[in-house]
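Researcher: We plan to redesign the surface later, but first we want a full-length starting point. Tokens attached.
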């Protein structure tokens, strides 16, 4: 079913891979891309479980928008090991205006398809996705 605002559909693989990340922790992160020609969101890259936040940040293009999901492991003040699933709306300042508009108008519906997101992060440059930003959003 296409998104009424932007006409974007969501490929089934997007939801299936997200469920694997959430339930089985098969992936550390997933990067999603809008294929304009096909008018749908597709999986662009899967991060292996052993990959780091740095690998995740490097997998986002410097001048193109993307959606991404990151399974962030952290230790609480009480020394408990936890994880939270972050949804990142990556929209760098250098991206084309049309691309930013398409990603912005499709984001809410796409995010609703991914049941289990705990934290949303909007980022326009790498500093807004720094490891410290993730840590500060886990409270």
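Model: Full-length starting sequence:
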């Amino acid at each position: 079913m296409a998104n009424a605002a932007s006409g974007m559909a969501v490929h089934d693989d997007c939801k299936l891979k997200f469920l694997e990340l959430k339930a089985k922790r098969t992936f550390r992160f997933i990067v999603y891309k809008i294929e304009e020609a096909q008018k749908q969101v597709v999986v662009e890259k899967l991060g292996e479980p052993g990959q780091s936040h740095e690998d995740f940040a490097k997998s986002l293009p410097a001048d193109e928008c993307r959606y991404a999901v990151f399974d962030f492991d952290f230790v609480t003040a009480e020394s408990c090991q936890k994880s939270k699933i972050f949804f990142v709306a990556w929209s760098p300042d250098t991206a084309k205006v049309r691309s930013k508009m398409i990603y912005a108008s499709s984001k809410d519906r796409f995010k609703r398809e991914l049941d289990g997101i705990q934290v949303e992060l909007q980022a326009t440059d790498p500093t807004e996705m720094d490891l410290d930003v993730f840590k500060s959003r886990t409270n």
